[in-house]
Amino acid sequence: MATGYLFRLRTFYAKNLPTGDFLGEAFYAIWMVVVSLGILRGTGFEGGAIAYVIIIAFLVNITWGLIDGLTVMYSNIIEKARYEKLIYDLQTKSDAGSREAGDAALTEGITFILSPADREKVLDMIASADHIDGDPSSKPYRPVRSDIYYALGILSIDVLLVVPLVAPFLIMSDPSEAQYLSRLIATAIFAALGAHYAKHLNRRRWLAALFLATICFGVFNLAFLLGW
């Protein structure tokens, strides 16, 4: 059952989140938990403070996930509106200004490989294609299902990655040892993230994993010595 759940979760992320966005959000999510637990260490984790610490760690990451997910989601919608405006101008005006803007947009995507002459042909195809519905300058833009799934994907990363870092506080009686184990888990996750970054950049995975894990573990220990 757990394997099936993980497969569905992996499929969801692969379908709705670019790899770079997934890795970047995971990186931020881990740091947010580590920082939250470090700041809250000042409570001494005494009495019932552990429960509050765990709740606050979740609330911080939920808040961050909502902010990041919604802002990036709407940024993507704004980009979609910009592209539709370019298409609309090409189909209604097709003047020098609209073609120049369209050519610049083509150099930003997979069509950057095309020569200027070939990009001109693509612009002609766009100009003669079926017209988009409505004037992008006046029609309202709202999130569609894919946009909502993107935001939910960002939020879920921030929430799910709290679990392995707060788990030591639930199974260990000594808060200091629990926090140290939590940071070891964070270091392992950072190593995995480094390896995944390297995989997609055709670099040495073990070197990237070692580099990121060493830096993060060093920062954790420095923070620990300074009272976090």
Please give a structural write-up.
This protein is mostly helical and 228 residues long. It has one domain (18-225). 78% of the residues lie in helices and 0% in strands. The chain is built from 9 helices and no strands. It has helices at 2-16, 19-40, 49-92, 96-106, 116-128, 145-160, 163-171, 175-200, 205-225. Helix 2 runs antiparallel to helix 3, helix 2 (19-40) packs antiparallel against helix 8 (175-200) and helix 3 packs across helix 5. The longest helix is centred in the first third of the chain and has 44 residues, at 49-92. The model has no long low-confidence stretch (mean pLDDT 89).
Q: Which features would summarize this protein structure in a list?
A:
single chain; 228 residues; mainly alpha; 9 helices; 0% strand
Helix content percent band: over 70%
Give the biggest sheet: none
Class by alpha and beta content: mainly alpha
Q: What's the alpha carbon Rg, rounded to whole Å?
A: 23 Å
H/E order of the elements? HHHHHHHHH
- Contiguous low-pLDDT stretches (5 residues minimum) are none
Indicate the mean pLDDT: 89
* Overall outline: elongated
Count of structural domains: 1
Tally of DSSP β-strands: 0
Number of helices: 9
Q: What is the rounded distance between the termini?
A: 38 Å
Query: How much β-strand is present in the residues?
Result: under 5%
